[in-house]
Amino acid sequence: MSSVEIVWWIDLIWIIPFIGAALAGLVGVFNKRFSGFIGVSSIFVSALLTIPSLLMIIHDPSKIIVSPQREWFVIDMPLANTPQLVFRVGSYVDGLSAIMALMVAWVSLLISIYSLKYMEGDYGEHRFWLFFTFFVGSMLLLVLSSDLLLFIIGWEGTSLASYALIGHWYRDDDEITFVGDKDRKAFGKSMFFSPSHSGVRAIVMTGAADIGLLIGVGSMIFFGGTSYIPDLYLSSSLASFFRELASSGVLTLFLFITTLGALAKSAQFPLHEWLVTAMTGPASVSALIHAATMVKAGVYFMLRFSPIFISISSLAGSLAVSQTREYFIIIAVLGGFTAFLMATMAVVSRELKLIWAFSTASQIGYMFVAVASSGLIAEPGLGIVAGFSHLLSHAVFKAALFLTAGALIHVVHSRYINDMKGLASFMRITVFSAYLAALSLAAVPPLAGFWSKDLVVETAGIAGLSLIYVLLLFTAFLTGFYSLRAVGYLFMSSKESSHVHEAHEASPVMYIPYLILALSSLVIGFVWWFYINDFAEIVLAALPIETIHEIHMDPMVMYMSIVIALVSAFSSIYIYQFSKKEIYPVILSKAPSLEFLHRFLYDRWFINSIYYIVFVDSFTELYKTLGRYFEHLVIDNFYHSILTRFASVVSRGFRSIQVGFINIYLIALIIGFLIMFLIGMGVI
Amino acid sequence: MSLVLFADLFLSLTTSILIASSIVSVVSKILDVPRVYMKRFAQAILLILLIYLFVVFYVSHSYVISQSYSYFVSPDVVSLLILLSVLLSAFFVVSAYPVDLEMFEIVVAVSLLGVLGSVLIAHALDPLSIIVSWALLSLSSYSIIALMKDRYSLDASARYIIVGVLASQLLLFGLGIIVSTSVASRSFYTTDLHMLNTALVLGLSMFFVAIGFKLGSAPLHFWLPDVYGRASPYAIAAVSGFIKIGLIALLVRIVSLYSGYSPVFYIMIFLSVLSMFIGSFTPLTQRDVQRILAYSSIAQIGYILIGVSIISLVASPGTSGFQKIFYIALGGVVVHALGYSISKASLFSMLGYVRRVSGSSDLSSLRDIEKPWQMKFSIIIHLANLIGVPPLPGFWGKLLLFLSATYNDPRLYLGGIPWLAILGVLASVVSVFYYLNIMRASYFESSKSSLEKELERSGGSLSSDIYYPYIASILIMIIGLLIPLILVYIRILT
């Protein structure tokens, strides 16, 4: 099939950031500034190494590059076809992972340079760099690992780093780090989230769903007989496992459970809540983890595993194929619904980072629709290419948006867009980058966002998911609207906000990275048309599905997309950018009944409250009841009352035998003799 | 080789040396020799005997119970290893005797005779030699207690004597019955062990009553809390330290002679379980340190009896596959006895000084005295040894004993007795409480008075006498670390 080349330095791409993280943590105890430099340089070296690996793939797309696979441990298995499970440590580079690693490494590098300035003087600066660099290492490990066990290790490493970085400002002492409005409650549940609380939410939601991931991946390793990813592509033992699952009718369920981890990681409904409150982290964290890389890990999972699911189920028979189709439809529905759900929340949100957070989950919904569609169309490669290209373009412009948001929030010392009115005249470069990236998000041609979103929508149409198709188009309208709304506030003139007049442009260490990212979105958009076919070939060459040599874009879809983008953009610009006052109070005065709709969307469809009431409150009651009845009455009682009383009763009882009269002792001796004699005779 | 001859003469030379030394001791009282010299002399004699013992170890390479070369005594591995405990603890006990005891020289003399009795009974094989050494042993122990000359000691020794006389009578009677059932005259051998011979069982139970009485195992233990609890701690150090230990060798020997005979097995199990439980549960609410240590002796003998029970299952020469279990059980018995004897001896010696100053051996009096840090440290080490904390010998002993009990082999009669080990562990766990009580009282002291100052005031001194228990604690730490090496070495060898 494809040739394999063994290159020794591929492992360094993910090893070096780990070493950098350890060093940064150690050095940071003595000198906080220096830990930043160590972190950035390790990411830089890593990023440099991704370039030659990609060049090698481009040179021969059907080639796979692996690092020398070192055996880690072996489990002896009583299974008939595989006597042993061997787990190896190593990397695996094909088109998909090379391009993904390149994106991850370079975007991380730009964000880390930004962070040098952004996190300067912070009380946990070295801790930030420890976890930031550790995260980059884990993400690269996830992307490049050749072994499923390593993949899971990278996956969990990113969860850990995410938890630590979301809760970075764990002291909960600055209100600007919180998410939500103070004292706001929805159905009695507070909608004001602190960094420490958000960190726990993130790791609990993603961790709970990871159970599904472990079940699925574990089963695949066990029944496939191997944990080496390329060996799973055409594994016949895995195919027979799928056949068996399909004949019991549970293949859909199995595939869905496996994907639960990815759904949570990528913040899709119903596990989307953590991403919203994850905005308590620093802006660079939001940019890196919650826009560019970690949330994309779920999509990467889908990109890597959908071809496996498709090829294995086609080997496993028609029943498997139909159940796999069902699974893909479910994923597409979830993705599409999430896209819509999140866009509605973004439209009413007042916090800048929250808008971009909702937007991220929404756009990832698009990616899930695309990858899921690949399982439903005749040319699966199209879905893969659509999803992956949207992943890449979104990563670039969303990172720019978050970084600019960080700069803007810092300058006005407020996270609300209402306080940022009129900043455009003072921070030209920042606002320019933000505007450019927002246009890309709104899918205005010729920016990158337009092309990739267009391809996604088209794929959904080909797959025949008409409801999703319509939903995606409507969501595209909402997307254009809210993204231009957010940046529109920056141009609104206002006399109220005082901070704005002290504003000054951010330092070059901060603005150069996001300027580069915003311009990249423009450049990618320009060259997209020319390179998309080569891109498709590189990505699909080593995957077990057919390569696509030419991508056709349906002109109808393109026209519709352009119209939607321009209409939404212009309406938003009219309402926000060129207006002198805010529109919401005006609407409210005209139609008071819309207030409930606003509250419904602002409080995130009350989903958060529902979760807290159903899950958190029930368990709280459970543990309180258990505490009262079991812990206190049974366990404490046993150890502190019953056991002690038993011991002292027995002790005093035995002591009372010691009467002190020698006659009794003599009699006891005789009785003892009698008992021993009887025991010896076997009577007792 | 002359060394071999030297070893063969071990028993006779030891006997003569000890008798001579006790005579010397009595003479020194008459001649008014300074007591310190007598003490050093006794210590030197015991050290010489220890060295002699090591020479014998070196010479006798075989570690199996050898054919006895006489009808009367059998210097085999069991007796030699038990003698190690006897001589070591005797050394520490005699070293810790305060020189201003009223009858110091006589006490030393009687102690040396007690050592002799222990040596002899450890080697005894024949009913007659048992009786002779028993007499020497018992009389020495009664005398040591009585010689301390305070009201409580006389009370204690009177109790001991009265119950002891009954036990000795049972011993004689039992031995007589056993001998009458045996094939050869004046020996223990009997050919038919599969039939339930009533007379034999009767005799054996009387015999075991006597030994159990002396060892302090339940249900024959009633004298022990009173005697150990009231007598002067120095005397009890002697009694529990070396006088009891020789009997363990005798018990192992007799039990192994009758191994496979179920009545013996049942009796041993009964004694073991009852001792462990009474010894663990009774002192939980006890406040007198001496009585707590008395009950602890009962419990420790209970653990040793676990090993003896296993030996009673597996020691018969016919069963070849069980050699390993036998060695584990024997190792457990010996190691545990070693740890027990040294620690009990040291604890009672140190307690003697405390009681002298404060007048009582209550936990509160232990707490209210400010002790030198070495004393606190060695109290804790010795108590830890009794609890069974690794790497001290108490732990290794318990480990080997429980290991032998859990050896689950279907060829074994009853298939092994793992539940006995479980009970042992339970008893150990419960007993930790009262050891910790003593540790807490001795460590967290309230410095109302200082041991050293009080002693000086009453005319005594804490001079070099008190250092021996400290040395003992360091010694058992070293022994504890060496034991696993020795165990491995032995396994390799055999």
Strand order in the sheet with the most strands of chain B: 1-2
Q: Helical segment tally of chain A?
A: 24
Number of domains of chain B: 1
Largest interface here, residues on each chain? A-B, 27 and 39 residues
- Tell me roughly what share of residues is in helical segments of chain B: over 70%
Poorly predicted runs of 5 or more residues of chain B: 62-68
H/E series of chain B: HHHHHHHHHHHHHHHEHHHEHH
> Could you list the spans of chain A in which at least 5 consecutive residues all have pLDDT below 50?
none
Tell me the β content of chain A. under 5%
Structural class of chain B: mainly alpha
Which structural category do the helix and sheet elements of chain A fall into? Answer: mainly alpha
Describe it.
- The complex is a heterodimer of chains A (684) and B (494).
- Chain A folds into 2 domains: 4-602, no CATH class; 611-681.
- Helix content of chain A is 72%, strand content 4%.
- Chain A has helices at 12-28, 32-59, 95-118, 125-144, 148-166, 195-224, 229-232, 236-247, 251-265, 273-277, 283-292, 294-316, 318-348, 352-374, 380-412, 428-441, 448-462, 466-489, 508-541, 555-577, 584-590, 594-602, 607-657, 662-681; strands at 4-6, 64-66, 70-76, 84-89, 92-93, 185-186, 189-190.
- In chain A, strand 3 (70-76) and strand 4 form a beta hairpin.
- The longest helix of chain A is centred in the C-terminal third of the chain and has 51 residues, at 607-657.
- The radius of gyration of chain A is 30 Å and the shape is globular.
- The model of chain A has no long low-confidence stretch (mean pLDDT 89).
- By secondary structure, chain B is an all-alpha fold.
- Chain B contains 20 helices and 2 strands.
- The model of chain B is unreliable at 62-68 (pLDDT under 50).
- Chain B is globular, with a radius of gyration of 21 Å.
- In chain B, strands 1-2 form a two-stranded parallel ribbon.
- The longest helix of chain B is centred in the last third of the chain and has 36 residues, at 323-358.
- At the A-B interface, helix 23 and helix 24 of A face helix 7, helix 8, helix 9 and helix 12 of B.
